[in-house]
């Protein structure tokens, strides 16, 4: 769902997503959340790069799964640079390969796009979530040591500690890791993904991948509950689509009405 920006009347959705069958019983999913003036082009380009390289590098499970995911992220970064899209724009990303036979998920992410796993059988807390790469702790020290600036700021209705170029009001990133954005990389932004292998799916497991437009307004527990209710109401057909739609709807209800304030792009798969 496209957002709305008061200062950009012709706003273009900067989110993109990927759902790709790698082989029978094995699926690649991803959500990519662009930022910067070319964020919409970056997110779509990253989606295409993961679809291209993931189709071969991530097709088979095995002991090298972590390295294959890391390689896909590196190739995505190289592709953005080669396309001339990486100077001051970028994207966060969360990518997962789902193996139906083993009931496991391999996850790689950077930034504040997030993956959540919960049970679809009973009310309970999520069994797994990725953690955001916030501008804090060691990441904040890395940025400061690299000459960047960090301070709290509110952008598009979201208050967070953010990364800035020295003496400037940009880029104002609320994440310490992202693809692209070479300017921010010069002051400590990292493009190294965090990787989690063999995440177990609980009985009736539900997997939600979503952009920051969801997680900035809805808690992990609320997302799990919305997903669970949608799955229970749509057991026979369209379960995945119903879950994604319910999560997006829940998040949109927390943002201002269009015209009353900025609304982030909202994507869930």
Features of the shown structure:
single chain, 269 residues, alpha+beta, six-stranded antiparallel β-sheet, three-stranded antiparallel β-sheet, 7 helices, 12 strands, globular
Helicity range: 25-40%
List low-confidence stretches. Answer: none
The percent range for strand residues is 25-35%
Count of helix runs:
7
N-to-C SSE string, H for helix and E for strand: EEHHEEEEHEEEEHEEHHH
Radius of gyration from CA coordinates: 18 Å
Which descriptor suits the 3D outline?
A: globular
Distance between the termini: 12 Å
Largest sheet: 6 strands, antiparallel
If you average the pLDDT, what whole number results?
94
Number of strands: 12
SS-derived structural category: alpha+beta
Q: Nutshell version of this structure?
A:
The chain contains 7 helices and 12 strands. It is α+β, with helices and mostly antiparallel strands and 269 residues long.
């Amino acid at each position: 769902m496209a957002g709305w920006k008061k200062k950009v009347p012709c706003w273009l959705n900067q989110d993109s997503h990927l759902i790709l069958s790698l082989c029978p019983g094995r699926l690649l999913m991803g959500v990519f959340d662009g930022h910067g003036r070319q964020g919409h082009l970056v997110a779509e380009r990253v989606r295409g790069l993961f679809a291209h390289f993931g189709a071969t590098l991530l097709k088979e499970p095995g002991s090298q799964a972590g390295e294959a995911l890391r390689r896909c992220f590196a190739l995505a970064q190289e592709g953005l640079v080669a396309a001339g899209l990486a100077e001051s724009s970028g994207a966060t990303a969360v990518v997962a390969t789902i193996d139906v036979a083993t009931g496991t998920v391999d996850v790689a992410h950077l930034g504040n796009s997030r993956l959540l796993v919960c049970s679809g059988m009973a009310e309970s807390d999520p069994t797994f979530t990725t953690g955001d790469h916030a501008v804090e702790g060691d990441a904040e020290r890395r940025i400061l040591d690299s000459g960047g600036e960090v301070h709290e700021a509110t952008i598009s209705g979201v208050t967070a500690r953010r990364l800035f170029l020295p003496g400037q009001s940009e880029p104002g990133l609320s994440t310490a890791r992202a693809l692209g954005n070479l300017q921010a990389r010069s002051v400590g932004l990292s493009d190294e993904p965090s990787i989690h292998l063999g995440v177990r799916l609980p009985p009736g497991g539900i997997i939600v991948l979503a952009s920051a437009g969801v997680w900035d307004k809805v808690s992990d527990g609320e997302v799990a509950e919305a997903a669970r209710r949608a799955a229970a109401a749509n057991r026979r057909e369209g379960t995945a689509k119903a879950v994604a739609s319910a999560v997006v709807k829940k998040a949109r209800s927390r943002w201002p009405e269009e015209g009353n304030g900025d609304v982030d792009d909202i994507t869930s798969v």
